[in-house]
Amino acid sequence: xxxxxxxxxxxxxxxxxxxxxxxxxxxxxxxxxxxxxxxxxxxxxxxxxxxxxxxxxxxxxxxxxxxxxxxxxxxxxxxxxxxxxxxxxxxxxxxxxxxxxxxxxxxxxxxxxxxxxxxxxxxxxxxxxxxxxxxxxxxxxxxxxxxxxxxxxxxxxxxxxxxxxxxxxxxxxxxxxxxxxxxxxxxxxxxxxxxxxxxxxxxxxxxxxxxxxxxxxxxxxxxxxxxxxxxxxxxxxxxxxxxxxxxxxxxxxxxxxxxxxxxxxxxxxxxxxxxxxxxxxxxxxxxxxxxxxxxxxxxxxxxxxxxxxxxxxxxxxxxxxxxxxxxxxxxxxxxxxxxxxxxxxxxxxxxxxxxxxxxxxxxxxxxxxxxxxxxxxxxxxxxxxxxxxxxxxxxxxxxxxxxxxxxxxxxxxxxxxxxxxxxxxxxxxxxxxxxxxxxxxxxxxxxxxxxxxxxxxxxxxxxxxxxxxxxxx
Length: 473
Known about the structure:
By secondary structure, this protein is α+β, with helices and mostly antiparallel strands.
């Protein structure tokens, strides 16, 4: 740092943000003391702060700063959920590579029933696989509703409870549409006598991506053994998530979304008569169903509520400010350096007032400010002795800045003047003064119009105003 050009050092001093106040009892005309070391630290702290500010603002604009998220769970008396097409699919993994859900020569027919308030609302709809997606059947668009409100509430804005009943049966022509047909009974019996791998339940779940501010889909799978010998009844409970998103820049701006968050399965084994009895009780019709699987698809009334508060500008600025405060802890280092530099400069100047020849002494210090060498003498021992004596005088010089020492020195001068001039002459000093000399007034050869006490030989009269004498800086 000492090798830097003088002008550059001045620039660093002018940039110094951590200047220390200059004590009154010094010869410095400035109100604050600055150093180029501290100026360099000021530049470093400022650059780091600005760079971090730009980085955080960019991360905030890109959505990479995590929001504040609070989550709870509550029971809902009424809720509904719209379902997209094929939001849930059933896919068979059959090692025999025989698709039982195909439209032609159908072996197993999935029938979907719409149930409202425990009543079948419409005739069952058969589901089939197709050539582009074999071994797979999916539900069409629909709506699931949970309504546990008082049945006497006739508010038309509330829909009745609604769920779906999906039953896999052996193919019967009466449940098929015009473009489908059943396989032969022999083929059906042959298929039912064997095991056929696993049936995958695939559901399209939804989640909110706060970085992209959009809805995303993820797929979740569950597996069941596909055995026509045993009849299984499975409840598919779909869990909702309500997201209250506050995406305001400065103030609150709430947006509400409802997503399908998860699903769970509840299985139990039943007999064939149970499925037929349930279907008949729901519709009061005589259904002949040779069931294999039965699924009840409904919404769980336990709902997860999530509140997402996107980082606001005020929070981002507060976050940046806290980090900048940490960066600006460098100021303590800068203030320490300024104090040490100021002390060294003042000590040196006071010492040079008494010993002018010390201005020719070049002192080299280490990082901690300790004198390690000078240009005095070639012998190490002589140089070491000079350093000890020089450092001792520097310590004494700094003590002279104390007010008590200044008063002490003034008192010695007053007593000395009293001894040489007498008390009467000292008292008359308060009446002395010089005539104010205007600039440009030709009075260079005029002596000051004032009575001057003198002792011994007088030095030549100064050409400048006496007011300017004995004033450093």
